[in-house]
């Protein structure tokens, strides 16, 4: 993804399909659930099914769905419906593309204190959005993750805390790999 796409993806995000189901655009609430369940990088068929299950429904329904006594059966039925020949490795690749797309952020350099953050990334973004940008803690989970991330970095730049480099983190990573 190129730097110029970071803004447009918040307006018209790409549609992703994992394990045969279309995923909703990732919200802060989805990201919190994925983080809590440890599903950022699933490695098994069950994990990728659960990740797709979480992101294929509204984030407010996730808690009820996860704690439902029927969820295990739903996932088994889903796996049965996909069949033994379903390529879960491809689903894991599609899931990772979905995560990378929604977690992409601009490359920044921190001013002053030497940079870095002490808290987990998502907690930091959520706290910064609520404190600095006036997002409501009760409704921030409804906001698209990519939009909140861009808002936080734009605010930090206007406050003089960071310099935003006109490059995404994935572009910077590719540049480093080519030069190595």
Can you describe this structure in just a few lines?
This protein has about 180 residues and is mainly alpha-helical. The protein is built from nine helices and four strands, in the order H-E-E-H-H-H-H-H-E-H-H-E-H.
What does this structure look like?
There is one protein chain. This protein has 180 residues and is mostly helical. It contains 9 helices and 4 strands, in the order H-E-E-H-H-H-H-H-E-H-H-E-H. The strands form 2 sheets. A two-stranded antiparallel sheet has the order 1-2. Helix 3 crosses helix 6 and helix 7 (121-133) packs across helix 8. The longest helix is centred in the middle third of the chain and has 16 residues, at 88-103. The two termini are 21 Å apart. The mean pLDDT is 86.
